[in-house]
Write a structure and sequence with these properties.
- By secondary structure, the protein is of the alpha+beta class.
- It is built from four helices and three strands; from the N terminus they run H-H-H-H-E-E-E.
- The chain has a three-stranded antiparallel β-sheet.
- Helix 1 packs across helix 3 (90-102) and helix 3 (90-102) crosses helix 4.
């Protein structure tokens, strides 16, 4: 008799604790990739603004120094998931996020995010980037699904912002 009263309550508590672990794991994984992506974008902003790149459309321009030439040549071989020579945009942030989440594999990123209970996986995350006062701020919005959805109320909206100072 007592078991029939206590067992459902005990199972409910275990499921609740498991749900909290799922949410914390998802947030930690996403936050780590977001921090790495934002820091990487802050470094790219410095390189884009301060390194004189060779312009292939204008044959009369050259690098300002040997250092600029070496950095420019080194950046030519980098993956778009880890380096860019353009200003940060939401698509650049998304690629960088995928790079730090799964090494640049978009299908693996979508699967990983779905396994973390992110609603719609990679398509369910929106990326925004703003630059002001020498800082880059990346904001993402997404929803996490509880493992057990009671009455369709098991989605939590999340917004995370990371700010990094541009390298000087």
């Amino acid at each position: 008799m007592e078991t029939s009263i206590v067992l459902p309550f005990f199972i409910l508590v275990i499921v609740f604790i498991y749900s909290i672990f799922v949410i914390v794991n998802a947030q930690n994984t996403i936050t780590h990739a977001l921090i790495q992506a934002t820091d990487s974008l802050a470094m790219d902003a410095y390189l884009t603004e301060n390194v004189s790149s060779y312009d292939t459309s204008d044959i009369t321009t050259f690098w300002n120094s040997l250092t600029d030439m070496v950095l420019d040549i080194a950046r030519m071989d980098n993956s778009e998931y880890f380096s860019s020579t353009t200003a940060a945009t939401s698509s650049t942030v998304k690629k960088r996020f995928i790079g730090y989440l799964t090494g640049g594999d978009e299908d693996a990123a979508a699967k990983k995010l779905k396994s973390l209970s992110i609603v719609d996986g990679l398509d369910g995350i929106s990326f925004q980037v703003t630059e002001s006062d020498g800082n880059i701020t990346v904001t993402i919005s997404y929803k996490i699904q509880y493992p057990i959805d009671v009455l369709g109320l098991g989605k939590i909206s999340m917004n995370q912002s990371i700010t990094a100072k541009k390298w000087a």
